[in-house]
Amino acid sequence: MEENEGIVEEKDELYEHFRFTVDSGTELIRMDKYLMNMLANTSRNRIQQAAKADCILVNGKPQKQNYRVHPRDVISILLPNPPREIEIIAENIPLDIPYEDDDLIIINKPAGLVVHPAYGNYTGTLVNALTYHFQNQKDKHGNPVRPLLVHRIDKNTSGIMIVAKSEEAQAKLAADFFTHTINRKYNALVWGDFKEDEGTIEGNVGRNPKDRMVMTVFPDGEQGKRAVTHYRVIERFGYVTLVECQLETGRTHQIRVHMKYAGHPLFNDETYGGDQIIKGTTFTKYKQFINNCFKIMPRQGLHAKSLGFTHPVTGEYMLFDSELPADLSAVLDKWRNYAKHKEFEDPDELENTPNTDTFQ
After folding, report:
1. CATH numbers and ranges of domains, the chain
2. CB atoms < 10 A from the CB of 345, how many?
3. Which of the four pLDDT bands, split at 50, 70 and 90, describes residue 354?
């Protein structure tokens, strides 16, 4: 498997890279052995890890490595990036690198940086930057090091992410993401005030049938994939709240769509309605205060705060934490000042409960 990404847990983001139709005269053999004969420059362990992550399909259904292939079986191998259409261009883009070794690299990604080249973003991405960063590095076999993604962060979300530098590390990390043994925590600024200090949001997440570019929650489980988000209130500001979100699953836009479903869209999340004044007063200065916050942070208030995982080679448990970015920190400071002094509040509305005084 020579493409530049591994397997992640979010099946909505997987693309077919290889497809084989088993010959009519083929004897019954294990699938991993069959694929070893069909794929160049790969290992049995790599194939087995992909099978464990349910990324090898036989006739459209996931099968494990010991499945015995039958004549005319159709075997597909899925990876999280579309098949490469262009050569990755090395670009000297500054990176914040808290840690790096021979097997992996930790990146503190800024908001606005796309992770992988795709239609409309062929340059200026994290992968372009890492390709430049790795250009003089060789792996233990003497081959050039390439960035091997195992998960992603939305363009306008900031924070910690991990990238593998070897296929062995990629396969192990991808399997850990798939089995949800990676510990990920986000900080999110959301509209509204939670009644409870902590809780859990559950609801299948899948692509919106009316707009495939956005996700939606299917509460009855008739569509989408199981999704679970645990949250804990960090700081209350009345009309908005800073919460910590811990992912039990990892669906596309999971926190953003779950918070919208719970009635608390992320602050300034244009895709899911958070770029409107949802909670607050009708006082003109309050509206100006919100617009100023939007200008300071022209993206959703979401930051990947920490990432904990077992090192794929050494077995050591590693935990990385990141500071909040300047734009989110500045907006939080403004809300602290507002909540403390009520300086923009209409005196006639001070008796109102924040949750009930809502813009429609």
Report:
1. 11-79 (3.10.290.10), 99-180 (3.30.2350.10), 185-305+321-349 (3.30.2350.10)
2. 19
3. very low
